[in-house]
Write a structure and sequence with these properties.
The chain is α/β, with parallel strands linked by helices and about 425 residues long. Among the domains are: about 10-205 and about 390-415, Crotonobetainyl-coa:carnitine coa-transferase, domain 1 (Rossmann fold, 3-Layer(aba) Sandwich); about 215-245. Helices cover about 40% and strands about 15% of the residues. The protein has 17 helices and eleven strands. The protein has helices spanning about 20-30, 55-60, 80-85, 100-105, 105-115, 140-145, 145-150, 165-190, 200-205, 215-235, 240-245, 275-285, 300-315, 320-330, 350-355, 395-400, 405-415, and strands at about 10-15, 30-35, 65-70, 90-95, 120-125, 195-200, 260-265, 270, 335, 355-360, 365-370. The strands form three sheets. It has a six-stranded parallel β-sheet, with helices on both faces. Helix 1 (about 20-30) packs across helix 8 (about 165-190), helix 8 packs across helix 9 and helix 10 packs antiparallel against helix 11 (about 240-245). It is globular. The protein starts with 8 loop residues before the first strand and ends in a 5-residue tail after the last helix. About 30% of the residues are buried.
Length: about 425
Amino acid sequence: MAGALEGIRVLDCTQIIAGPLGASLLAEMGADVVKIEPLEGEPWRLQAEFVPKESRGYMAHNRGKRGIAIDLKHPATDSIRRKLIAWADVLITNYRPGVPEQLKIDYASAKAIRPDIIYCEGTAFGKEGPYAQLRGYDIIAQSMSGLTALNQNVNQRGLPQPIAFAPADVLTGTVMAWAVTAALFHRSRTGEGQAINASLLHTALWVQGAAQEIPALDFEPRRERLDALDAARERGAGITEIYAERRKWTPELSGNIYYRHYKTKDSYIAVGCLGPGPRERFRSALGIYDARYDPGFTGSAVEVGEALVEQCEAIFLTRTSEDWLEYLQRADVACGPFRFIDELGNDPQVVANGYFTEYEHSLFGTVRGTAPVATMHGSPTRIQRASPMLGEHTDEVMAELGLDAAAIARLRECRAIG
């Protein structure tokens, strides 16, 4: 059976994580994705290379694509650029605003060649405003948006610790793919293409439930928090002190026993109890009493919570992780072991659901990675191919555009393609 996007052609002019991941997701739905790279390779290919021109990050975010190396600034490639845009149903970019215009792969240029094209642009901070023209990456979007501060993590040097898996990048790539599929559906009904905009900063704001404000209720607490923050910065307070001070507005964080990790006799486990029923089952399983949930409670939530944390931590140290998981699962308490990704290859749950799969790479032979993240039975998702080597499909794609071997050789000789 064909994938849902079989027959859809995507021109991928993106780099690093967000844009490449979005285009890769479209490839897993069946689209024919051609990735454009500069002759030296895109930056993510060159980040932490384990052999020249190959990195694991690049391989992970560029599966399923054909790859061509081309210098879009070279005058000899102007006609090729036009042919590629005419070929494409979808054009994806994630340069700083202004760069697509320089390369003539902006929406206006693309629409002039193909009026019904779907143009998806990802930026760091959005196309308007004082930061629009600045370079930006996931770590900056996390920091600017409050996402880094959300979990109040501090590294060994006492500095704010961002979330490690690049959530702004990964989720923006997912948003881009989601929006493209909606735009394709819209075009199928109306014949109209359109421009799509997504940004790392917007995604990092959206993903935080705490960004939801109710002005009638939140004005005074927000002003207090901002005043305290200004005062802390004025006296030169470190981030650990600032985080500790802000916890008074979220006392539940000081006494969180229901949604966290615990150290056991031999390792760690996670428990997740949200809502009255799950919390009651957790208390019953551990034989503890939480006065904070008594209707007439008037004491200090922080003091009670901190005492409960010490009590629960001591209890969990009395058994192994395996014992606790078996016991808590029988009590219908949500829990799971703490693992490193290296341990998951033979995990029975992962294996049973086929969450890892193997596919062939032109240079490395059989490689293993996560399977397509969505399973679709009527229009199956699949990894069409591994990530391309630099310029692996240049000749193939040029021939499809109508260039003969002599023309391709001339372009390569003048360093217009690689």
